Amino acid sequence: MESMQFEITNSEGKMIICETIATYHDEDSNKDFIVYTDGTLNEEKKLKLFYSLYKIKDNTIQLIKTMNKEDKKLGLELIKELITDLKS
């Protein structure tokens, strides 16, 4: 997958460049998921990962904030799989 960067506005109103780690299309729900990072580290000095639903509009990644319980569960499973794959 080629590098895909996009910008988000954080809670303080600051624009932040994020890097796509992985994308996934769920055939059952016909939804697209993205795992990404803003380059920040957690208290254990590990890269913070986030997930969201997304769509591409005008060649730009747009995050979709509305997620149900199943979407959240699938997003967390994606992150867990990525971490497991990276460790092996």
Radius of gyration over all CA atoms, rounded:
13 Å
**Whole-Å distance between the termini?**
20 Å
Low-confidence stretches: none
When the domains are counted, the total is 1
- Give a short account of the largest sheet: 5 strands, antiparallel
Tally of helical runs: 1
Number of beta strands:
5
The rough form would be described as globular
Task: Name the helix and strand elements from N-terminus to C-terminus, one letter apiece.
Answer: EEEEEH
Order of strands, main sheet, comes to 1-2-3-4-5
Structural class: alpha+beta
**Strand coverage percent:** 35-45%
Q: What helical percentage do the residues reach?
A: 10-25%
Mean pLDDT: 90
Report on the structure:
- Helix content is about 20%, strand content about 40%.
- The chain has about 90 residues and is of the alpha+beta class.
- It has one domain (about 5-85).
- It has a 5-stranded antiparallel sheet.
- The longest helix has 19 residues, at about 70-85.
- It is globular and about 35 Å long.
- It starts with a strand and ends with a helix.
Brief rundown of the structure:
The chain is 22% helix and 42% strand. It is an alpha+beta fold and 88 residues long.
Looking at this protein, list some descriptive labels.
88 residues; five-stranded antiparallel β-sheet; 1 helix
List the helices and strands and how they pair.
Elements: E1 5-9, E2 15-26, E3 31-37, E4 50-57, E5 60-64, H1 69-87
Antiparallel strand pairs: 1-2, 2-3, 3-4, 4-5
